[in-house]
Amino acid sequence: MSSEFERIAAMEDPFALLRAATDRLSEAQQEVTDLSRLRRRTIQDLHAQGLSYAQIATQAGLSRGRIHQIRHTGPAPEGAFFGSGTVTIVTPLRPEPGKPRAAVSLDDLNTGKRLEDLVRSFDLTVQDDHVSVDGVVDLDRPGLVVVCGPRMSEAMARTYALDPVFAWERNDAGPWCIRDRRTGKAHYAGSDEAPPSAGDIGYLGRLPRPDGAGSILAIAGIHPVGSLGVAHWLTTDIATLWGQVGDQDFSVLIRTEYDPDTNEPVKTEMATPLYRHEDGR
Of 39, 205, 217, 227, whose CB is crowded by the most CB atoms within 10 A? Predict the structure, then answer.
């Protein structure tokens, strides 16, 4: 028996034992999920390098049938894009005009819900949190996905400033844009152009935490529908994205065309190349 089991079993307080056993079960179940994902990813990587399932089975001391089964079952490897354990999805609170309370906008609510569904599909635990109305948010936590632009949070503005490729800009009282420093092109939301169109630009990137002990996933549209477009794009392209960036820091802009009556994305695509920060590409 493990020392952890023996430690819990030896507890005299039955309520403390129940709490400790429950917490340990949750940790163990998450560890099983993470190991299953890692195992499946390793088999996929070896197969992509040219090894047959039979060769992998021989080297791993498993049957070919077992290797094939692992390859096609269990948590998808791309779930590691969000990390492991608990993923916290953070959306901004906005003041409600004429009311003493704050609320999440419908577009931000839909973005958070779509991201929650995607994360849960990878057998990860999800919880939610908010950026306060005055822009305060704790970014020094693992597993953060923050849906918030630089305008609503100084902490996020400082984080976006660490991106070596994209810069959020606004001239006087004009519309916001996101400039690609590599090409010099400024990307504007379609709704801010003349003539206007039902389109927006969303940012997606993995950026360093303020404490330097990890990274956060940052999502923001020039308008809220741009964030929803990023979430929509992730649901269909996350496997390709994970294959290209893994756990490296990166950033990319996503163009969204949406139904102007519902703000629901009808088409999403990359508006820029996918830039990996570590290798300068």
Answer: 227
